[in-house]
């Protein structure tokens, strides 16, 4: 709890006027060797100062309540590794040692949390603490489906954004199963996610219905058309994807996420699929200044802070950041062993290396 309070105070002091972004995009590929590889981008209107957080099994964790009290208390059954935000010991994107992945995505205008009461305090936790609970307690999507609503998510306010962050969650396991969990109307709803994608608002069922507007899209080029004596042919490659929405809104990004992930040729192995996911997610990278509020100017422009990919078969979590596009990895067994039973952190931010190859002539 002390770590949480200090992190929130520091964030509030430095980012009191910042506006959060709403532009995260998640996909999933399955390699020919059966490896399941989810990945996502993380966008925000200010730097979350994310680090890798390592949470071993056997650690006792307490949830938070809106009045500053303690909520649910549990001891982790499984160790987990992933990214945090603002110094909190909470994984907002990561994987556990059983190959279960959880990603937190912004859900503005739709996230609605349960009222905090004396009766539910022993089951309560903050929105950003839900990922820890899922990763610490469950090994498969089936287990998550059987238990996802055994806790209540309550509106614990983050001072920096002056609200309880509205979020929803995607969960994948190493069998390829996937679900989306959303706090709507003060209760948790769960949806099967056969395509393995997620963006932001509105609700997941709306996004799935919206896909019906794009059933014409195909990775195959469109053949020429004969109109009387005129033959019309494509100008070049990509005619099958003509009409694919290219803006940064959540509905458009989800359509693109489905189009690109479904069109991807299956990689032979999970490690090769990792690189493939990074390539696909490059399409969703938001440059600083491209998305911003009119009254805010460039100061609080949304941009891609980091991109992460998880190999659920080989238990590795990969990432690259805005300041360093080099891909780095964390091996779960090695990191959890090095943590020696305590919550530990690894710095994510670094400076992009640029290699001079002028004299490497062949």
Automatic annotation (TrEMBL):
It comes from the Bacteria. Residues 1-23 form the signal peptide. Residues 24-333 form the Choloylglycine hydrolase/NAAA C-terminal domain. One of its GO terms (molecular function) is hydrolase activity. Keywords: Hydrolase, Signal. Pfam families: CBAH. Belongs to the peptidase C59 family. This is Choloylglycine hydrolase family protein. It comes from Methylocapsa polymorpha.
